[in-house]
From TrEMBL:
<dbReference type="Pfam" id="PF02544">
    <property type="entry name" value="Steroid_dh"/>
</dbReference>
<comment type="similarity">
    <text>Belongs to the steroid 5-alpha reductase family.</text>
</comment>
<keyword id="KW-1133">Transmembrane helix</keyword>
<dbReference type="GO" id="GO:0016627">
    <property type="term" value="F:oxidoreductase activity, acting on the CH-CH group of donors"/>
</dbReference>
<dbReference type="InterPro" id="IPR001104">
    <property type="entry name" value="3-oxo-5_a-steroid_4-DH_C"/>
</dbReference>
<dbReference type="GO" id="GO:0042761">
    <property type="term" value="P:very long-chain fatty acid biosynthetic process"/>
</dbReference>
<keyword id="KW-0560">Oxidoreductase</keyword>
<protein>
    <submittedName>
        <fullName>Synaptic glycoprotein SC2</fullName>
    </submittedName>
</protein>
<keyword id="KW-0812">Transmembrane</keyword>
<keyword id="KW-0444">Lipid biosynthesis</keyword>
<keyword id="KW-0472">Membrane</keyword>
<keyword id="KW-0443">Lipid metabolism</keyword>
<feature type="transmembrane region" description="Helical">
    <location>
        <begin position="176"/>
        <end position="194"/>
    </location>
</feature>
<dbReference type="InterPro" id="IPR039357">
    <property type="entry name" value="SRD5A/TECR"/>
</dbReference>
<feature type="domain" description="3-oxo-5-alpha-steroid 4-dehydrogenase C-terminal">
    <location>
        <begin position="238"/>
        <end position="338"/>
    </location>
</feature>
<feature type="transmembrane region" description="Helical">
    <location>
        <begin position="295"/>
        <end position="321"/>
    </location>
</feature>
<feature type="transmembrane region" description="Helical">
    <location>
        <begin position="234"/>
        <end position="256"/>
    </location>
</feature>
Amino acid sequence: MKIALLYHEAKREFEFPNDIGSAKFHIELCQKLGLKASRTRFFRVPEGPSSDTTADESQKGGRAMRQRKVYINPENSKKVLSDYLDGEPAESTVLQLGIKDIGPQFSYRGVFLLEYTGPLVIWLVVAMNTKMKTAFTNLATVMWVFHYVKRLFETLFVHIFSNKTMPLRNLVKNCAYYWGFAAVISWTILQSNVRINMSIREKVGEWEELLHAFQDTKDYSHILHLSKSISNHLLYEVSIMPAALFFISELSNLYFHLKLRYLRPPGSRDHFLPHGLVFDKITCPNYTTEILSWMFFAMFTRSWVCAVFNVCGAIQMYIWARQKRARLAEQFPEAKKRFCIFPLL
């Protein structure tokens, strides 16, 4: 097959077998051009431009033209070069390609590992330097560590990444987001324990008075008042209920990730529509439980910074969920009936 490559305002031609794999083709063509395969992408130039159109000019054709671009997938070992001809005869067709420099790249999995390791280390450093440790700060630490250890586990053993790399700038952006919020959240939460300790001391004094009053009068109304005070303290002041709901959301999130992990058969790159439980109603329930986890953590810690962090993450996840639903709807029309993350959204 003849390849016409629009490169540096000139057209260069190469010959490749029709049945060469797209991954092997990508590597060999980069070697011929002396380019780094990790930061180079080839795309089929749309039918609109003439054969004299350069790659740079072909990228200026507006949004409609960009949508018509078909990139040669350098990570698909099963797809061959002739698959990109849209049914045209390989013997008489010249595959016209443009070239794009996608910039410095970094491992997709590596970005996730770094952005999740940072908050874990930051919290533990702040916790170790906190002078007054309480049941509240200890439980908050357990919740934080559980969340990020779970994320690291999923990154290493659960998630399957469609792309091997992402732009290096994403590493800086993602780490700044996660590490910056982690520093502020950990500092504000772990330094708030004095107020909570005072609240506990006041409650203990109140409970002792009620207990002594019952011992003196044998009036069981004091016991009822005592039990009600303890229940209210555990549920609303110490926030046991949000903490319990946090762990339920975290385990649900892990379940949804595992279900998505085994949705696709080994070696397959096809898309499948998940079913069962809330998948029949919501496109991305893993995002739903992620947002709920941080909401319950913010309720437990009463941290407005954590609430802001959750809102920022929820906005981004909603954008991703809409994009995923649109992609699924192209292949599975019933996906249009599903909500993105929450009902009515």
